[in-house]
User: Which sequence fits this backbone?
């Protein structure tokens, strides 16, 4: 029985690791941070034509900073409230044949 207990514990640990690894907040946060950095860098030195199109607003800079903030929010949220592996379903009690009340 000891080997079975070890195997179940190992599977539970792997399941919890997989749940944390494939947390959608990690993917969304990571993508927003990467794209936010790219757009922010593009917004640091806009051309005069770009500023004219945006009516003087540094739209790439503000959008990049907003994307960075959103990405960091997702990553902090993931860190503060990590995903837990789903609980194993409890087995239903077995009924004796012929004791069906329905």
Assistant:
């Amino acid at each position: 029985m000891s080997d079975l207990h070890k195997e179940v514990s190992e599977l539970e640990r792997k399941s919890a690791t997989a749940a944390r690894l494939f947390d959608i907040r990690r993917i969304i946060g990571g993508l927003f941070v990467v794209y936010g950095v790219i757009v922010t860098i593009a917004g640091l030195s806009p051309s005069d034509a770009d500023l004219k199109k945006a009516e003087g607003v540094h739209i790439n800079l503000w959008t990049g900073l907003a994307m960075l903030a959103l990405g960091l929010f997702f990553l902090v949220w993931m860190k503060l409230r990590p995903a837990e592996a789903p609980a194993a379903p409890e087995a239903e009690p077995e009924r004796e044949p012929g004791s069906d009340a329905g």
